[in-house]
Amino acid sequence: MKSSTHKLIVQYKQKRQTKTINMRPPIHFLLGLIFVIILKLLTSLTIIEVSIILLASFLIDIDHWFIYILKKKDLSVNNAYAWFVEKEEKYMKLPLNKRKQFKKPLMIFHGIEFIILLLILSLASKIFIFIIIGVLFHLFCDYIDLIREKEPLYLKLSQIYTYIKNKGKKEFY
Length: 173
Known about the structure:
By secondary structure, the chain is an all-alpha fold. It has one domain. It has helices at residues 2-18, 25-42, 47-59, 62-72, 77-93, 96-99, 112-122, 127-148, 159-166. Helix 2 runs antiparallel to helix 3 and helix 7 (112-122) runs antiparallel to helix 8. It is globular and about 50 Å long. The protein starts with a helix and ends in a 7-residue tail after the last helix.
């Protein structure tokens, strides 16, 4: 009895996990669009300013494409997207303890290092403030996804720390 109940729970969790919404570019765009519509309604931001926030809220994921280019020597955005989706699906099917054995990808625009660079650039131009807002919104969405998937938050907090944590681990991506 206990064994069959356990089996059903495992099957339910696997089905539930495959039906969750992952933070992929179309979802980031949709959430970013909702976010900037609310910002536009509640603030005096211009259409240009909210457009910059929207673009930053999903174009930050271009670092995924850069990783694909380095790994596969291919410039196709469609191939990169398909490759990352396939890799992510395989990775998420692994038990949590197995996932910890693998290196995490270094997403150069996903962390405090990039935000500090943008803050410095904002001293020269106000446009970078709007980029920071979009990037922070994107990272907020990613943090929710990391928590839901039981992944460490440092992945999107610091790429230097991610690099250090990757030492001695096997390649996955």
